[in-house]
Amino acid sequence: MAQAGQGFENTQLGKLLEKAAGRDKAAELFNMIEVDAKLLAECSANVPRVIVAQAMNMLLFAKNLDAVPEGKAYVADKLEAGGKVVFDHGALRTVAGTDTGALPTGELAFKRFLEPLGFAVAGLYPLAKLKMTGRAYCHIDAPESVAQFFVSELHTDQFSPAFQDAVKQVVGTSRDPLDARAKALLATLAETRSLPFDDAAELLPKLVGCFAVQHATPSVEAYETLLAESAEMAWISTEGNAFNHATDHVSDVFSLADELRARGLPIKDKVEVSANGTVRQTAFKASQVEREFIAADGKRVTRVVPGSFYEFITRDDVIDEATGEKKRDLRFDSSNAQGIFKMTAAAC
Predict the structure, then answer these.
(1) Could you give the CA distance from residue 31 to residue 167 in angstroms, rounded to a whole number?
(2) Glycoprotein among the record's keywords (predicted)?
Protein backbone atom coordinates (compact mmCIF):
# COMPACT_ATOMS: atom_id res chain seq x y z
CA MET A 1 0.00 0.00 0.00
CA ALA A 2 1.07 3.58 -0.61
CA GLN A 3 2.53 5.37 2.40
CA ALA A 4 1.09 8.75 3.45
CA GLY A 5 1.42 10.47 0.13
CA GLN A 6 5.12 9.61 -0.34
CA GLY A 7 6.34 9.59 -3.93
CA PHE A 8 2.92 9.98 -5.50
CA GLU A 9 4.27 12.76 -7.72
CA ASN A 10 6.14 10.27 -9.91
CA THR A 11 3.17 8.00 -10.55
CA GLN A 12 0.56 8.22 -13.29
CA LEU A 13 -2.17 8.29 -10.68
CA GLY A 14 -0.51 11.10 -8.77
CA LYS A 15 0.13 13.16 -11.88
CA LEU A 16 -3.46 12.67 -13.06
CA LEU A 17 -4.92 13.78 -9.72
CA GLU A 18 -2.52 16.70 -9.55
CA LYS A 19 -3.58 17.83 -13.03
CA ALA A 20 -7.28 17.50 -12.16
CA ALA A 21 -7.34 18.87 -8.61
CA GLY A 22 -3.98 20.46 -7.83
CA ARG A 23 -0.93 19.24 -5.96
CA ASP A 24 -2.28 19.87 -2.46
CA LYS A 25 -5.51 17.96 -3.13
CA ALA A 26 -3.62 15.07 -4.71
CA ALA A 27 -1.39 14.83 -1.64
CA GLU A 28 -4.45 14.96 0.62
CA LEU A 29 -6.11 12.12 -1.27
CA PHE A 30 -3.02 9.92 -1.06
CA ASN A 31 -2.70 10.65 2.66
CA MET A 32 -6.36 9.75 3.18
CA ILE A 33 -7.01 6.70 0.99
CA GLU A 34 -5.12 3.41 0.83
CA VAL A 35 -3.83 2.82 -2.72
CA ASP A 36 -2.68 -0.61 -3.82
CA ALA A 37 0.91 -0.69 -5.06
CA LYS A 38 -0.26 -2.14 -8.38
CA LEU A 39 -1.94 1.22 -9.10
CA LEU A 40 1.27 3.20 -8.58
CA ALA A 41 2.96 2.72 -11.95
CA GLU A 42 5.43 5.39 -13.02
CA CYS A 43 4.44 7.97 -15.61
CA SER A 44 4.21 6.94 -19.25
CA ALA A 45 2.59 8.32 -22.40
CA ASN A 46 -0.73 6.51 -21.98
CA VAL A 47 -2.89 6.13 -18.87
CA PRO A 48 -4.56 2.70 -18.43
CA ARG A 49 -8.30 2.63 -17.77
CA VAL A 50 -7.75 1.30 -14.24
CA ILE A 51 -5.76 4.42 -13.32
CA VAL A 52 -8.46 6.72 -14.70
CA ALA A 53 -11.01 4.71 -12.71
CA GLN A 54 -8.99 4.97 -9.49
CA ALA A 55 -8.47 8.72 -9.93
CA MET A 56 -12.20 9.22 -10.45
CA ASN A 57 -13.00 7.15 -7.36
CA MET A 58 -10.61 9.08 -5.14
CA LEU A 59 -12.09 12.40 -6.25
CA LEU A 60 -15.60 11.06 -5.69
CA PHE A 61 -14.72 9.91 -2.18
CA ALA A 62 -13.50 13.39 -1.32
CA LYS A 63 -16.66 14.86 -2.84
CA ASN A 64 -18.78 12.67 -0.57
CA LEU A 65 -16.84 13.81 2.50
CA ASP A 66 -17.50 17.43 1.57
CA ALA A 67 -21.23 16.60 1.60
CA VAL A 68 -21.20 14.60 4.85
CA PRO A 69 -19.74 16.45 7.87
CA GLU A 70 -20.06 13.36 10.08
CA GLY A 71 -17.99 11.33 7.61
CA LYS A 72 -15.42 14.09 7.26
CA ALA A 73 -14.95 14.33 11.01
CA TYR A 74 -14.67 10.53 11.33
CA VAL A 75 -12.01 10.38 8.60
CA ALA A 76 -10.08 13.27 10.20
CA ASP A 77 -10.02 11.36 13.50
CA LYS A 78 -8.92 8.19 11.70
CA LEU A 79 -6.05 9.99 10.00
CA GLU A 80 -5.04 11.66 13.26
CA ALA A 81 -4.78 8.19 14.82
CA GLY A 82 -2.51 7.05 11.98
CA GLY A 83 -5.11 5.17 9.97
CA LYS A 84 -6.29 5.47 6.38
CA VAL A 85 -9.53 4.80 4.54
CA VAL A 86 -10.00 1.63 2.53
CA PHE A 87 -12.57 2.82 0.01
CA ASP A 88 -14.91 -0.14 -0.57
CA HIS A 89 -17.74 1.20 -2.72
CA GLY A 90 -19.86 4.18 -3.62
CA ALA A 91 -23.61 4.01 -4.14
CA LEU A 92 -25.85 6.08 -6.38
CA ARG A 93 -29.49 6.13 -7.43
CA THR A 94 -31.03 6.41 -10.88
CA VAL A 95 -34.55 6.50 -12.32
CA ALA A 96 -35.87 4.01 -14.89
CA GLY A 97 -39.08 3.82 -16.86
CA THR A 98 -39.66 7.53 -17.42
CA ASP A 99 -38.52 10.51 -19.47
CA THR A 100 -35.16 11.63 -18.10
CA GLY A 101 -34.60 14.44 -20.56
CA ALA A 102 -31.15 14.44 -22.18
CA LEU A 103 -29.80 11.98 -19.60
CA PRO A 104 -29.94 8.25 -20.45
CA THR A 105 -32.49 6.48 -18.29
CA GLY A 106 -31.62 4.40 -15.23
CA GLU A 107 -28.27 2.63 -14.97
CA LEU A 108 -27.47 3.49 -18.61
CA ALA A 109 -26.44 6.99 -17.46
CA PHE A 110 -23.50 5.32 -15.68
CA LYS A 111 -22.99 2.08 -17.59
CA ARG A 112 -21.94 4.13 -20.62
CA PHE A 113 -18.76 5.26 -18.87
CA LEU A 114 -18.26 2.64 -16.16
CA GLU A 115 -17.78 -0.06 -18.81
CA PRO A 116 -15.11 1.86 -20.79
CA LEU A 117 -13.35 2.47 -17.44
CA GLY A 118 -13.17 -1.31 -16.95
CA PHE A 119 -16.12 -1.97 -14.66
CA ALA A 120 -18.58 -4.81 -15.27
CA VAL A 121 -21.75 -5.95 -13.52
CA ALA A 122 -20.77 -8.55 -10.93
CA GLY A 123 -24.16 -9.00 -9.28
CA LEU A 124 -27.85 -8.14 -9.59
CA TYR A 125 -29.75 -7.33 -6.40
CA PRO A 126 -33.55 -7.03 -6.32
CA LEU A 127 -34.68 -4.36 -3.84
CA ALA A 128 -38.36 -5.28 -3.95
CA LYS A 129 -39.38 -3.39 -0.80
CA LEU A 130 -38.13 -0.17 -2.38
CA LYS A 131 -39.32 -1.00 -5.92
CA MET A 132 -35.72 -0.77 -7.07
CA THR A 133 -32.98 -2.97 -8.54
CA GLY A 134 -29.32 -2.71 -7.61
CA ARG A 135 -26.29 -3.65 -9.71
CA ALA A 136 -22.76 -4.01 -8.42
CA TYR A 137 -20.14 -2.77 -10.87
CA CYS A 138 -16.73 -4.26 -10.06
CA HIS A 139 -13.46 -3.42 -11.82
CA ILE A 140 -12.27 -6.21 -14.11
CA ASP A 141 -8.56 -5.39 -13.86
CA ALA A 142 -8.30 -4.85 -10.10
CA PRO A 143 -11.46 -6.03 -8.31
CA GLU A 144 -10.04 -5.86 -4.78
CA SER A 145 -8.07 -2.64 -5.33
CA VAL A 146 -10.58 -0.31 -6.99
CA ALA A 147 -13.79 0.63 -5.17
CA GLN A 148 -17.00 -0.80 -6.61
CA PHE A 149 -20.18 1.04 -7.56
CA PHE A 150 -23.63 0.02 -6.35
CA VAL A 151 -25.94 1.50 -8.98
CA SER A 152 -29.65 1.30 -8.19
CA GLU A 153 -32.62 1.96 -10.43
CA LEU A 154 -36.04 3.05 -9.18
CA HIS A 155 -38.86 1.49 -11.23
CA THR A 156 -41.39 4.28 -11.70
CA ASP A 157 -43.94 2.00 -13.40
CA GLN A 158 -44.57 0.32 -10.04
CA PHE A 159 -45.95 3.52 -8.50
CA SER A 160 -49.18 5.51 -8.83
CA PRO A 161 -49.98 7.70 -11.87
CA ALA A 162 -49.61 10.85 -9.73
CA PHE A 163 -46.18 9.69 -8.61
CA GLN A 164 -45.14 8.93 -12.18
CA ASP A 165 -46.24 12.39 -13.29
CA ALA A 166 -44.21 13.99 -10.49
CA VAL A 167 -41.12 11.94 -11.42
CA LYS A 168 -41.39 13.01 -15.05
CA GLN A 169 -41.86 16.63 -14.00
CA VAL A 170 -38.62 16.49 -12.02
CA VAL A 171 -36.19 14.34 -14.02
CA GLY A 172 -37.63 15.17 -17.44
CA THR A 173 -35.57 18.38 -17.26
CA SER A 174 -32.25 16.51 -16.94
CA ARG A 175 -29.20 17.61 -18.91
CA ASP A 176 -26.43 15.33 -20.08
CA PRO A 177 -23.14 16.14 -18.29
CA LEU A 178 -21.13 14.32 -20.97
CA ASP A 179 -20.54 16.35 -24.11
CA ALA A 180 -19.56 15.04 -27.54
CA ARG A 181 -15.85 15.32 -26.73
CA ALA A 182 -16.22 13.26 -23.55
CA LYS A 183 -18.17 10.58 -25.41
CA ALA A 184 -15.47 10.43 -28.09
CA LEU A 185 -12.78 9.97 -25.43
CA LEU A 186 -14.84 7.21 -23.80
CA ALA A 187 -15.16 5.45 -27.18
CA THR A 188 -11.38 5.54 -27.52
CA LEU A 189 -10.95 4.28 -23.96
CA ALA A 190 -13.34 1.40 -24.63
CA GLU A 191 -11.38 0.41 -27.73
CA THR A 192 -7.79 0.86 -26.53
CA ARG A 193 -8.19 0.53 -22.72
CA SER A 194 -6.01 3.61 -22.23
CA LEU A 195 -5.82 7.29 -23.09
CA PRO A 196 -3.01 9.75 -23.70
CA PHE A 197 -2.32 11.62 -20.45
CA ASP A 198 -3.79 14.96 -21.56
CA ASP A 199 -6.96 13.24 -22.79
CA ALA A 200 -7.34 11.34 -19.52
CA ALA A 201 -6.89 14.57 -17.57
CA GLU A 202 -9.51 16.26 -19.75
CA LEU A 203 -12.02 13.44 -19.28
CA LEU A 204 -11.61 13.01 -15.52
CA PRO A 205 -13.53 16.11 -14.28
CA LYS A 206 -16.32 15.38 -16.75
CA LEU A 207 -16.73 11.92 -15.23
CA VAL A 208 -16.83 13.33 -11.72
CA GLY A 209 -19.46 15.80 -12.93
CA CYS A 210 -21.82 12.91 -13.71
CA PHE A 211 -22.28 12.37 -9.97
CA ALA A 212 -24.47 15.38 -9.35
CA VAL A 213 -27.97 16.83 -9.81
CA GLN A 214 -28.68 17.11 -13.52
CA HIS A 215 -32.32 18.27 -13.35
CA ALA A 216 -34.01 21.58 -12.51
CA THR A 217 -35.10 22.61 -8.99
CA PRO A 218 -38.15 20.51 -8.04
CA SER A 219 -41.44 22.01 -6.94
CA VAL A 220 -42.69 21.59 -3.38
CA GLU A 221 -45.76 19.82 -4.73
CA ALA A 222 -43.72 17.30 -6.74
CA TYR A 223 -41.42 16.63 -3.80
CA GLU A 224 -44.29 15.95 -1.42
CA THR A 225 -45.97 13.67 -3.96
CA LEU A 226 -42.76 11.67 -4.32
CA LEU A 227 -42.09 11.55 -0.58
CA ALA A 228 -45.54 10.11 0.09
CA GLU A 229 -44.67 6.97 -1.89
CA SER A 230 -40.87 6.73 -1.99
CA ALA A 231 -38.29 8.33 0.28
CA GLU A 232 -35.71 7.15 -2.24
CA MET A 233 -37.23 9.07 -5.16
CA ALA A 234 -37.75 12.13 -2.96
CA TRP A 235 -34.02 11.93 -2.21
CA ILE A 236 -33.20 11.73 -5.92
CA SER A 237 -35.30 14.84 -6.55
CA THR A 238 -32.98 16.92 -4.34
CA GLU A 239 -29.65 15.06 -4.58
CA GLY A 240 -29.82 13.60 -8.10
CA ASN A 241 -27.02 11.20 -9.01
CA ALA A 242 -24.66 12.29 -6.25
CA PHE A 243 -23.10 9.56 -4.12
CA ASN A 244 -25.85 8.35 -1.83
CA HIS A 245 -22.99 7.11 0.34
CA ALA A 246 -19.31 6.22 0.29
CA THR A 247 -18.12 3.22 2.26
CA ASP A 248 -15.04 2.52 4.38
CA HIS A 249 -13.90 -1.10 4.75
CA VAL A 250 -13.07 -1.70 8.43
CA SER A 251 -11.84 -4.75 10.32
CA ASP A 252 -14.77 -5.06 12.77
CA VAL A 253 -17.90 -3.07 12.04
CA PHE A 254 -19.61 -4.26 15.23
CA SER A 255 -16.94 -2.91 17.58
CA LEU A 256 -16.64 0.29 15.55
CA ALA A 257 -20.40 0.84 15.71
CA ASP A 258 -20.34 0.36 19.49
CA GLU A 259 -17.47 2.82 19.82
CA LEU A 260 -19.14 5.48 17.65
CA ARG A 261 -22.45 5.02 19.45
CA ALA A 262 -20.74 5.43 22.83
CA ARG A 263 -19.30 8.73 21.59
CA GLY A 264 -22.83 9.93 20.81
CA LEU A 265 -22.36 9.95 17.04
CA PRO A 266 -25.43 9.44 14.78
CA ILE A 267 -24.75 5.80 13.91
CA LYS A 268 -27.43 3.41 12.67
CA ASP A 269 -29.07 1.41 15.46
CA LYS A 270 -28.47 -1.95 13.78
CA VAL A 271 -25.63 -3.61 11.90
CA GLU A 272 -26.93 -5.26 8.73
CA VAL A 273 -25.62 -8.82 8.20
CA SER A 274 -25.78 -10.63 4.87
CA ALA A 275 -27.63 -13.93 4.57
CA ASN A 276 -24.34 -15.84 4.43
CA GLY A 277 -22.86 -13.81 7.30
CA THR A 278 -19.74 -12.68 5.43
CA VAL A 279 -20.71 -9.04 4.81
CA ARG A 280 -21.65 -6.69 7.67
CA GLN A 281 -22.62 -3.03 7.23
CA THR A 282 -23.71 0.01 9.20
CA ALA A 283 -23.69 3.75 8.59
CA PHE A 284 -24.05 7.23 9.96
CA LYS A 285 -27.54 8.59 9.53
CA ALA A 286 -27.87 10.89 6.54
CA SER A 287 -26.69 14.47 6.91
CA GLN A 288 -29.51 16.98 7.06
CA VAL A 289 -29.11 19.56 4.30
CA GLU A 290 -30.95 22.68 3.16
CA ARG A 291 -32.33 22.51 -0.39
CA GLU A 292 -34.31 24.86 -2.61
CA PHE A 293 -37.78 24.16 -3.99
CA ILE A 294 -40.25 26.06 -6.16
CA ALA A 295 -43.40 26.96 -4.21
CA ALA A 296 -46.90 27.16 -5.70
CA ASP A 297 -46.54 30.91 -6.21
CA GLY A 298 -43.30 30.43 -8.16
CA LYS A 299 -41.04 31.69 -5.40
CA ARG A 300 -38.01 29.76 -4.21
CA VAL A 301 -38.24 28.31 -0.70
CA THR A 302 -35.89 26.15 1.32
CA ARG A 303 -36.42 23.19 3.59
CA VAL A 304 -34.21 20.70 5.39
CA VAL A 305 -34.06 17.24 3.81
CA PRO A 306 -31.83 14.13 4.08
CA GLY A 307 -28.59 14.32 2.14
CA SER A 308 -25.81 11.76 1.68
CA PHE A 309 -24.18 9.62 4.36
CA TYR A 310 -21.04 7.65 5.23
CA GLU A 311 -21.05 3.87 5.56
CA PHE A 312 -18.85 1.20 7.15
CA ILE A 313 -18.46 -2.39 5.95
CA THR A 314 -16.61 -5.53 7.01
CA ARG A 315 -16.07 -8.22 4.38
CA ASP A 316 -14.73 -11.67 5.22
CA ASP A 317 -12.42 -13.68 3.00
CA VAL A 318 -14.09 -16.61 1.24
CA ILE A 319 -12.90 -19.45 -0.96
CA ASP A 320 -13.49 -18.87 -4.67
CA GLU A 321 -15.21 -22.09 -5.81
CA ALA A 322 -13.86 -21.69 -9.36
CA THR A 323 -10.19 -21.26 -8.43
CA GLY A 324 -9.89 -22.49 -4.84
CA GLU A 325 -8.25 -19.18 -3.92
CA LYS A 326 -9.08 -17.19 -0.81
CA LYS A 327 -10.52 -13.81 -1.80
CA ARG A 328 -12.38 -10.97 -0.17
CA ASP A 329 -16.14 -11.43 -0.50
CA LEU A 330 -17.02 -8.52 -2.77
CA ARG A 331 -20.69 -9.40 -3.02
CA PHE A 332 -23.59 -7.33 -1.72
CA ASP A 333 -26.85 -8.42 -0.10
CA SER A 334 -30.35 -7.19 -0.99
CA SER A 335 -31.56 -7.16 2.61
CA ASN A 336 -28.46 -5.26 3.76
CA ALA A 337 -28.89 -2.70 0.99
CA GLN A 338 -32.55 -2.07 1.80
CA GLY A 339 -31.66 -1.58 5.47
CA ILE A 340 -28.84 0.81 4.64
CA PHE A 341 -31.03 2.79 2.20
CA LYS A 342 -33.31 3.70 5.12
CA MET A 343 -30.61 6.14 6.25
CA THR A 344 -32.02 8.70 3.83
CA ALA A 345 -35.64 8.39 4.92
CA ALA A 346 -36.93 11.82 6.00
CA ALA A 347 -37.75 10.53 9.49
CA CYS A 348 -34.12 9.61 10.25
Answers:
(1) 41
(2) no
